User: Fold this.
Amino acid sequence: MDANILVPAVAAAVFVIYRQTMTRPTERRGILYVAAALVVSGVAGGGLVDSRHLALSLLLVVAELVSAVVFGVVRALTVRVWRDQTGVAWSRGTAWTLAAWAASLAARVALFAAGRVLGVASTTNSILVFVGVTIAVQALAVAWRGRSLPAPSVRPGDAAAVAS
Assistant:
């Protein structure tokens, strides 16, 4: 394992997981920049495909990407999402979110180990891609959930309170 890649990937995942346990607005573009940086770094680092085992290697990459997307959606569904009285959508991860993170990371490790057992040479750059994709999918799904919540109903007497 390359510590130059593993450390930033783990640090990013821990930071994101920690932040998800806090109450935050659902619309956050900053996390998408972090996710994009992780994916770009992983792809630019190369080694995602083993030319000696091209078909198997590509199959593993596709499996990792599908897994990243599926777990991103699953985690997004475990996040509590609500609107406050002013109409702002908020989110906060639950214990289920943490469990889903553990499952997604275990699946990623299992795919990496399967590749090693099958003789596919891979670098830890794929970890950056996996973490970046799964973070982005979760953030986009949570934001979508927040946008799809009904707007709070404002009663005639409440209009002044909301405006202040």
In short: The CA atoms of residues 108 and 116 lie 13 Å apart. The first helix runs from residue 3 to 20.
